[in-house]
Design brief:
CATH architecture of one domain: 3-Layer(aba) Sandwich
Number of strands: 8
CATH topology of one domain: Aminopeptidase
Strand content: 15-25%
Helix content: 25-40%
CATH superfamily of one domain: Gcn5-related N-acetyltransferase (GNAT)
Shape: globular
Order of helices and strands: EEHHHEEHEHEHEEH
Radius of gyration: 18 Å
Number of helices: 7
Amino acid sequence: MPEGRREAGLRVRPFDPAREADRAAILDICLRTGDAGGDASALYADPRELTELYATPYLDRMPEWCFVAESVGSGSAPAAGDGSGPVVGYILGAPDTAAFAAATGLRLPEFAGHPAHLHVNLLPEAQGRGGGRMLVEALLARLTAAGIPGVHLVVDPRNTGALAFYPRLGFTELARTPTGVPFARTVPQPEPSSWSPRECRLQAALTDPG
């Protein structure tokens, strides 16, 4: 799994629920990128109107499916005593959209064959440096390990950068409406040689027509 990978002064690692700075940064980035990738601070008197839809439920219920991108290197001030840099982006995911919607009460679109969904956001200074790709690859690796067959997301049609970004990562545009553009892609599955004996027995049972 490409966790801990570095590129262009950025490093991706799992979200740490014990670090208050991680949560605070994600909520801040959610607001600062919440208007089709632009700053939504002026649109919400209470930022929780946005963050409690697109960030908090994932941090509270799916922390193991969340990753952050942090700045590293000589130009980054450490955000914690362990030498980690400031968080400048994140990816939040849920492996089973239907179950997540039922647990949170959120109304979420579902797409056959692509049960997982994700949200990615990066601050402007972190864009164009490979952070978005690293975040998506980290979540895809975890989805692969869990045997999830596909993942989707919905992009604001005004976010031209995101509309161009996801096809480069293997996502296919499913439709285009004034309110959202859904994308989906299959998730790479483990090679049979990497399966455990239990996984081999399960796969045989699933593919045996008798």
